[in-house]
Amino acid sequence: MSTVAYEIVDVFTDRPFAGNPLAVVFGAAALAGDQMQALAREFNLSETVFLLPSSTATYRARIFTPEAELPFAGHPSVGAVVTGMRRGLFPAGQVVQECQAGLLPITVTEAGEATLTGGQPTLGDPLDPAPLLGLVGLTAADHAGPAPRTAGCGLDFTYLPVRREALARATVPLSGEVPMISVFAWSAPAAYARVFCPGVSVPEDPATGSASLGLGVYLTACGWLPADGSSSYTVHQGAEMGRPSLLQCTVTAESGTVTATTVRGHVVSIAKGEIAVPPFIG
User: Fold this and answer.
1) Rounded to whole angstroms, what are the CA distances from 50 to 74, 151, 169?
2) Of 55, 172, 220, 244, which is the most buried if we count CB atoms within 10 A?
3) 21-24: which pairs have CB atoms within 8 A and are 24 or more residues apart?
């Protein structure tokens, strides 16, 4: 039976058994998409990333939840680049990741830290908070700040600002009506977040790089971060799941329009081995 190599890492943490666990699969160039999906379902983590050759970038990444392929995600991108560097696939420094969201620059260090630059920023119109609050088991009294909006830098999330004390009472939405929602409390320069993704079979995520990138777009739009220049903020996530995570972010804006975002974090190796290649299904 043929196998491929894999490594399990914890992302956005500097200690093991915290942050967001990730499966990184190597030597998978011959695998079809349905075989990758079967492996992601077997690992049953929020995401599994496959490192593949690229003709236009340092490497190509394909990212899967247990049920679907994603065009981009933050913790698989950070985890993949650090793990690939440690395995000698490329040296530390500036690399470029190819994924469905495009070509994304990433800086990786020998110390096992990576800084990911987000894709094209997007911003949706203000939304009625009442239905979103109801989806996560909260009430109008828990809402804090401006109206919710969708935003993203390669992957869109809906951002719902709430009071800090309400975070612990938020519950996973039973409906996939809003596939990915970040419920957060803002205390400058830090956000305390819980991210629910029932629409992609991830009830709650302990560290979400893509949501942290989009949060900078939302914070700028609502005036909680400066409309011009570069500013920094941190995202604390995963505490309610027993997996505390720290995501360090920057956002750059001109006249209220975001032009660039970054998210930075550490990666800790947990396990490695070989896994059987699933039979071709398609």
Assistant:
1) 14, 26, 35
2) 220
3) 21/45, 21/46, 21/270, 22/46, 22/47, 22/48, 22/49, 22/75, 22/76, 22/79, 22/80, 23/47, 23/48, 23/49, 24/48, 24/49, 24/51, 24/76, 24/79, 24/80, 24/83, 24/84
Q: What share of the chain is helix, strand, coil (3-state, %, to 5)?
A: 20, 40, 35
Cβ 159 vs Cβ 148: under 8 Å: yes
**Which positions are catalytic?**
47
What are 54's two structure tokens? Answer: 């690229």
Query: What distance in Å separates the CA atoms of residue 120 and residue 101, rounded to the nearest whole number?
Result: 9
Q: How many residues are given for the chain?
A: 282
Of 281, 226, 219, 271, the residue nearest 6 (C-alpha): 271
**All domains of the chain in start order, with CATH:** 3-115+267-276 (3.10.310.10), 122-265 (3.10.310.10)
Structural contact between residues 268 and 15, judged by C-beta atoms closer than 8 angstroms? yes
Q: How far apart are the first and last CA of the chain?
A: 19
Q: How far apart are CA 161 and CA 177, in angstroms?
A: 18
pLDDT, tens digit, for every residue of 219-230? Answer: 999 999 999 999
Could you identify the residue written with the tokens 């999330």?
A: 157
Residue indicated by tokens 């009071």: 163
Note the pLDDT tens digit of each residue in 17-28. Answer: 999 999 999 999
Q: Cα 269 from chain centroid?
A: 18
